[in-house]
Design brief:
Radius of gyration of chain A: 14 Å
Number of strands of chain A: 7
Number of strands of chain B: 5
CATH topology of chain A: Chemotaxis protein chec
Largest interface: A-B, 29 and 24 residues
CATH class of chain A: Alpha Beta
Number of domains of chain B: 1
Distance between the termini of chain A: 16 Å
Distance between the termini of chain B: 10 Å
CATH superfamily of chain A: CheC-like
Shape of chain A: globular
Order of helices and strands of chain A: HEEEHHEEEE
Oligomer: heterodimer
Helix content of chain B: 40-55%
Strand content of chain B: 15-25%
Order of helices and strands of chain B: EHEHEHEHEH
Mean pLDDT of chain B: 95
């Protein structure tokens, strides 16, 4: 199965709603994101990377909802941890779409990164925004 | 509720989120313990008796599968209930883990109420 931007929108929206009651809409395209997370996956015929980039407002909203505390009580570290965990949840759903139910696909560990690479021509990207900020999801399949 | 629960997950923020859900079903804060990987989980079991382990699979140092194998091989810990909290979707791996002995599976992303319900049900059954 080929992953497209619509898949990414649906997967991220669902993960945000279920885990943290954060509601997003498509749009909000910007390159002004402060925080980035990456997770890789490898399996027979399906390997790649997923990158998440978000601004300070978004990661604080996500962390505050996950923890059930006010926005002002959330630290930058907690925001970064929240983005990494979101990357983990999103990647789990993406590899499931790619066939992980029946064909083993190994998920790596999510990590915070300084920047994300320039998207390749065959990459797909989704942009979403919430009440407090925006997030970009970038999926890049890796050729065998 | 005097039950004690061990959360094993490499995400500190998810551990705190799960701790919050457990407190909401009546657990005391000091009865919820945390470990960042399987080895830390085994170390925690050596010093703290618990009735439920919430276990992530994909972790550094020692993953959840190795933790589960070693825990179930140890008579002191083999009867502790384990609920997997994981992104894992591979049917073969989940069946293998089920055969090792688990009480439930919660797929990430999950709603806090799903965790409250599953943990409450498992603890209720255990007590």
């Amino acid at each position: 199965m080929d992953i497209n931007a619509k898949h990414l929108e649906e997967i991220v929206s669902r993960a945000l709603e279920r885990s943290a009651f954060v509601y997003v809409e498509p749009g909000g395209e910007t390159d002004q994101h402060d925080h980035h997370a990456r997770i890789s996956f490898d399996g027979d015929g399906s390997s790649g990377d997923i990158f998440l980039s978000a601004d300070q407002g978004f990661v604080r909203e996500l962390a505050s909802n996950l923890l059930g505390v006010d926005l002002e009580q959330v630290s930058t570290t907690e925001g970064i941890e929240a983005l990494s965990e979101l990357a983990n949840m999103v990647a789990g759903e993406v590899i499931s779409l790619l066939g992980a139910r029946t064909s083993p696909i190994q998920l790596g560990l999510p990590s915070s990164v300084e920047a994300i690479p320039e998207p390749a021509a065959d990459a797909c990207t989704a942009h979403l925004f919430s009440d407090f900020g925006s997030i970009q999801i970038h999926y890049q399949a890796r050729k065998a | 509720m005097n039950d004690k629960v061990l959360i094993i997950d490499d995400s500190p923020i998810l551990r705190r989120s799960m701790r919050r859900a457990l407190i909401q079903i009546g657990l005391e804060d000091h009865n919820v313990f945390e470990a960042g990987n399987g080895q830390e989980g085994l170390d925690a079991l050596e010093v703290q008796a618990v009735s439920l382990v919430l276990l992530d699979l994909n972790m550094p140092v020692m993953d959840g599968e190795e933790f589960l194998e070693r825990m179930k091989d140890d008579r002191r810990f083999s009867s502790i209930d384990v609920v997997l909290v994981t992104t894992e979707s591979n049917v073969g791996r989940l069946m293998r883990l089920s055969r090792l002995g688990i009480s439930g599976i919660l797929h990430k992303p999950f709603m806090p109420e799903d965790l409250r319900e599953l943990a409450g049900h498992t603890l209720g059954k255990a007590s």
